[in-house]
# Entry
Amino acid sequence: MKSRSPAISVIIPTFNRAAMLTDTLESFAAQSIPTNRYEVIVVDDGSKDATPEVCRDFGSRMQLRYLHIENSGISAAKNTGILASRGKILLFCDDDDIADSHLLEEHLKAHKQYPQESVAILGYTTWAPTLSVTPLMRYVTDIGRFLFAYGDLKDGQMLDYYFLLERTLFVQAVVSCQTRRL
# Structure
């Protein structure tokens, strides 16, 4: 019997951060939706730590695929995850992100409300309360707003087209980059 594709693929690039990745995977194992509705793809960018063992430990708790690549950087790791993904919706997370237990449920609801392929859903990210936030970190996120201008966004706001990319554009771009000789 052919297995059904998950609704959402979570792509997590990582490099030598097994301890942080453990907490991230724990948060995805505790999602409010059934594990057959999502897959987690961990792309290991050449780690020399316990990353493979961490992923193996979580493999029985959710649909988790571990992919190892030579150290090539975060973009190559994300592209590898995109090509391996089976879900129609892609969610990119970092290896130090702790997902709220309703994160995937809310993403699926939002995509059901806005089913157009040209819609992307942006969720709010903040620093962990246990983390010591440096002045540089505060500047990058709050003052200079180099990561996301959360303060300028309103709940449910529709953004202009240049903020959004379709999955097919990602896949086409990745395939194009991998087949072209530079």
About this structure: The chain has six helices and four strands. The longest strand covers residues 8-14. The domain at 8-120 is CATH 3.90.550.10 (Spore Coat Polysaccharide Biosynthesis Protein SpsA; Chain A). Strands lie at 8-14, 38-44, 64-68, 89-92.
